[in-house]
């Protein structure tokens, strides 16, 4: 039996993310991945059972990395504004440093992989953010609301800005580059919308 090669696994993960981010799940195959890595298809099957296993394992690994990045320096005892600002900072930094991985996750979110992907890394993250939500509601900083409403108001504007930045244009095709000024101006509107 052949030994696992950490560098090869890292290359496979990187190339799989790039291929899925660029061509989507429907344009992704083990053959294309092997070719992009300069290895045989048989080598992929040493590390992964099949295409689904490969995608899910990569999603879980990268999801754990992203989940950890989102809570760096974040404390569930923070105020609404302080905690949400830290979340925006962390999410923006992660997305800007990992644009291909962000696109990879977008592909997964609209696929049959979504449930397993989200369940894998959200445990610790949900616990920390759940405590934060509980605290800001108990302190009367925001109204009690369904999580989906909170998330849509709190984070959808951020992810739209990041999407515009990654595409290099906003709605209507105007050139767009995310600046700190635009980021924090948007954040200020979000805070105004959420605060009691």
UniProtKB/TrEMBL annotation:
GO molecular function per UniProt: DNA binding
Superkingdom to which the source organism belongs: Bacteria
Record PROSITE patterns: HTH_TETR_2
SUPFAM superfamilies for the chain: Homeodomain-like
Keyword terms: DNA-binding
Protein's name in the database: TetR/AcrR family transcriptional regulator
Residues within the DNA-binding region(s): 29-48
Pfam family, one: TetR_N
The keyword DNA-binding is assigned to this record: yes
Annotated HTH tetR-type domain residues: 6-66
Record's keyword annotation contains DNA-binding: yes
InterPro entries: Homeodomain-like_sf (IPR009057), HTH-type_Tx_Regulator (IPR050624), HTH_TetR (IPR001647)
């Amino acid at each position: 039996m052949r030994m696992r090669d950490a560098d090869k696994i890292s290359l496979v993960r990187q190339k799989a993310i790039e291929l899925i981010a660029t061509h989507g799940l429907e344009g992704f195959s083990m053959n294309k991945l092997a070719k992009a890595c300069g290895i045989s298809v048989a080598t992929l099957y040493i590390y992964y059972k099949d295409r689904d296993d490969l995608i899910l394992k990569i999603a879980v690994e990268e999801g754990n990395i992203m989940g950890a990045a989102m809570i760096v320096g974040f404390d569930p005892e923070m105020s609404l504004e302080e905690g949400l600002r830290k979340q925006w900072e962390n999410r923006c930094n992660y997305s800007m440093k990992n644009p291909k991985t962000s696109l990879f996750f977008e592909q997964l979110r609209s696929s049959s992989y979504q449930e397993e992907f989200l369940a894998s890394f959200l445990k610790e993250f949900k616990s920390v953010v759940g405590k934060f939500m509980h605290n800001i509601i108990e302190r009367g900083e925001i109204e009690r609301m369904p999580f989906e409403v909170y998330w849509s108001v709190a984070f959808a504007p951020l992810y739209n800005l990041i999407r515009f930045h990654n595409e290099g244009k906003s709605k209507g095709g105007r050139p767009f580059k995310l600046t700190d000024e635009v980021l924090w101006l948007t954040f200020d509107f979000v805070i105004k919308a959420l605060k009691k």
